[in-house]
Amino acid sequence: MVENGQSEHIEKISEATAEGIADERAEEVEINAKKTARSKTKGAIDGTTEAAPMDVAEEADLEFNIEELQSELEEARAKAEGNWNKLLRIQAELENQRKRSVRDLENAHKYAIDKFALELLPVKDSLELGLGHSSDQADAAKLHEGMELTLKMFSQVMVKFSIKEINPAGKPFDPELHQAMTIQENSELPPNTVITVMQKGYTLNDRLLRPAMVIVSKRPSPK
């Protein structure tokens, strides 16, 4: 019985050893195969060895890939051409818009006062009408009345376009709005007061168009 048990044990050890050797051999063969495959691939890339011939399936896959790449290339070219045409249209539109802006700006400079000029025409018509009647030996009262109406009409036009009158008689002198033409001694008014307005000034939207020309007072010199 002991001899039989030992024999079975020896047989199991032998089988295990054989299986281990076989596994090691198989693993060694697999490693060598991988090394050989890598070496062939590297050689094919470097040109040191000839690449293995492709089979029919590989050739078909390669042809399919080439056709697919050509199709994608044509599609990309078509998209690029479409984008180029869009770019040309956008450039043309921008150029037309620029030309329109330049033309509108020029017209704005040329005709900025067209409304103001249109409002002035009735004033001119009134003056011409008054001059026409003056030749008929109209009395001074009627001429005066006509001139007052014309002046009123003109003042209304100025107010409509935010043109304000500067008439600082009796007010303190303001160098921002007034231009002193001369200085006179005056004991009735405080120093630096406008005595007389020689020419009225005007502002447009609170910006000075023309300063008022004035005579300014000063303290009398002691005798």
How are the SSEs ordered, and which strands pair?
Layout: H1 2-46, H2 56-110, H3 114-134, H4 140-160, E1 163-166, E2 178-185, E3 194-199, E4 201-204, E5 207-210, E6 212-218
Parallel strand pairs: 2-6
Antiparallel strand pairs: 1-4, 3-6, 4-5
Helix pairs in contact: 3-4
Provide a descriptive summary of the structure in words.
The structure is a single chain. With 223 residues, the protein is of the alpha+beta class. The protein has a domain at 163-223: Nucleotide Exchange Factor Grpe, Chain A, domain 2. Helix content is 64%, strand content 15%. The protein has helices at 2-46, 56-110, 114-134, 140-160, and strands spanning 163-166, 178-185, 194-199, 201-204, 207-210, 212-218. The protein has a three-stranded antiparallel sheet. Helix 3 (114-134) packs antiparallel against helix 4. The longest helix is centred in the middle third of the chain and has 55 residues, at 56-110. The protein is elongated and about 130 Å long. The termini are far apart.
- Mean pLDDT, all residues: 77
Kindly report how far apart the N and C termini lie: 163 Å
Sheet/helix structural class:
alpha+beta
Outline: elongated
Count of helical regions: 4
CATH architecture of the domain at 163-223: Roll
Helix content: 55-70%
Uncertain runs are 1-6, 48-52
CATH top level class name of the domain at 163-223:
Mainly Beta
Strand order of the largest sheet: 1-4-5
What is the number of strand segments?
A: 6
The fraction of residues in strands falls at 5-15%
* CATH domain topology of the domain at 163-223: Nucleotide Exchange Factor Grpe, Chain A, domain 2
Write the H/E string, N to C.
HHHHEEEEEE
Mind describing the biggest β-sheet? 3 strands, antiparallel
CATH superfamily of the domain at 163-223: Head domain of nucleotide exchange factor GrpE
Supply Rg: 54 Å
